[in-house]
Structures are given as C-alpha cells and as structure tokens.
Amino acid sequence: MVALQHRSDMIQATCLHCKKSFELAVNKQDVVDWKGGKYIQDAMPYLSVDERELLISGTCGTCFDKMFGGGE
Fold first, then answer.
1. What is the pTM of this model?
2. What is the DSSP string of 32-46?
3. Which range marks the domain in which residue 11 is found?
C-alpha cells in the first residue's frame, strides 16, 4: 500500500520500487470519493494513467514499464 501524505490539494506518493517521490495536484473530495469506492479513473480523470497507477499500486510509470514492458 502506498503511503499518501495530504497537503492542501497535493498528494505526495513514493514509488515502492525506485523510491522516487512524486507530488500530484488533486481535489481532496476526489480522493475521498476514490477511497470510498469510486473507480480512480472516474474520481480523478485529470491524472495520467501513470499517476493513477502510482496511487493504486505504488509503482511509477518507469518501474511499471521495466516490470511489464512498455507500450507496443
């Protein structure tokens, strides 16, 4: 599980694999909705696929591509 730190409308998430830290601008209510069961793509469609994956699994896009291959 990824550790989230809320600061105003920013979330800091760290990749569990490379330990790189990312700061994402989000709406607080969207995070509440996601944590309450709403699909992340519906709660935060303004985040990229990589940003949403980081929040879901704790894996950044670069590490994800290294583990599972890039887009073909």
1. 0.83
2. HHHHTT--HHHH-TT
3. 5-68
* Tokens of residue 19, six digits: 């330990």
Q: How far apart are CA 34 and CA 38, in angstroms?
A: 5
pLDDT in tens, 25-68: 999 999 999 999 999 999 999 999 999 999 999 999 999 999 99
What span, in angstroms and rounded, lies between the C-alpha atoms of 41 and 50? 11
Alpha-carbon distances, residue 50 vs 8, 32, 59, 63 (angstroms): 22, 20, 8, 10
Q: How many domains does the chain have?
A: 1
